[in-house]
Amino acid sequence: AISTPLGEGGIGIVRLSGPDSIDIVSKLFKPHVEKNMNEFKTRTLYLGHIFDPRDQQVVDEVLVSVFRKPYTYTREEMVEINCHGGLVAQKKILGLAIEQGARLADPGEFTKRAFLNGRIDLSQAEAVIDVIRAKTDRALTLANRQLSGGLSDKIKDIREKLLTIIAHIEANIDFPEEDIPEASPETIKLEIIDGRKRVKTLLDGASAGKVLRDGMSTLILGNTNVGKSSLLNTLVKDERAIVTDIPGTTRDVIEEYIDIKGVPIKIIDTAGIRQTADMVEKIGIDRAIKYLEEAELVLLMIDVSQRLTEDDKYIIKMVQDKLGIIVFNKVDLPEIVNEMEVTKLLPDMPIVRISALKEKGIDKLKSVIHDTIMEKIGLSEETSFIAGERQRIILQSAFESLNRAVSSMENQRPIEVVELDIREAWEKLGEITGETVGEDIISTIFENFCIGK
């Protein structure tokens, strides 16, 4: 596969993995040194040319490196060809390799082979894509912790403790007359509760992980001409949206990502909501209302230099059940708005005063956005991993199984019933690391990877 983004660039990398990698590339590569590729030192770059075996024409001057198993990304023989970054050169080299017996890699196949060959577990494999897609330094740090086994170690520790409980129960059931110390029902119950608590801690971090991976969907909402587009431009530090004094300028939805203290925020600017006969503007307003339903955080913008209009009051009622921040804009002008009218309808929303045009109060607004998100999702400085949706579902299922086990203990149900629920939780948690997962799930996971990784 071509492992670098397609297009023009300084360098492009074509990567091969498998037992015939060295033999295939040796048919295409003429090194400047008088050496056979089988004699190349591992992890060393060799200068030479890729040529077309059919007519001996030079395709590109390249650097080739050989990686010998098992000390490679896939634990197989690997070769990487560093060529010039032009699309034609990369595709030509890829095509020549295929002609010599290679085949195109599936999405994520290199990482899949690393998993299947035991170099990483499934949780670490999923962290690879989080590293690639990280939108902030903090997301990158947490993805790298997971890649290093942060989540895997916690899961393995919980599974070992659950397996110990299962062993105690089975020993008491299968060998009642043997001289085996019997664990009391109360001891077993406390051990299950401890396991459930550990799973709950990981589960609580899953929502935080989603935000760090995908960003918090944050909608700028308000009447026309309150300064929504000016705020977007100020936050992204670019003239991303058109700003005029004419009401109804923004007619479509604009999305941009920003980084606030390591938390990615997907800022969405929408059309101002008001009564209008303009069909195009009305479509934009309908889209704004649709985005409001899906938004995780709302920045409700109000122009302090104007009295509240009926449109303002309508918008305020729309966001009463949403997580939001009231943004009083245009504080550089005389303040006319009646703050009590707003706080009476939205008593739980914090208020931040800004001037988007003069960039006044923006740092304060960012701080309030950050704190609001942190409180909402329970993200803390101690968060050590970012769980994906698949992992969250598994953790939820394991938590429910342990809940049933505790309930069975409290209701004095047969110990065999308790053991079934504990074993179910143990098996479920194994799906996170890949120890108890099926081939179909593995294939689905790696389909989300880019080709070449």
Mean pLDDT score: 85
**What are the segments in which pLDDT stays under 50 over at least 5 consecutive residues?**
239-251
**Helical residue percent band:** 40-55%
Distance from N terminus to C terminus (CA atoms, Å) equals 8 Å
Characterize the biggest β-sheet: 6 strands, mixed
Q: How many whole angstroms does the radius of gyration measure?
A: 29 Å
Strand content: 15-25%
Following the backbone from N to C, one meets helices and strands in this order, namely EHEEEEHHHHHHEHEEHEHEHEHHHH
Large-scale geometry: flat
Q: State the total count of DSSP E strands.
A: 11
What structural category characterises the helix and strand content? Answer: alpha/beta
Strand order of the largest sheet: 7-8-6-9-10-11
- Give the number of helices: 15
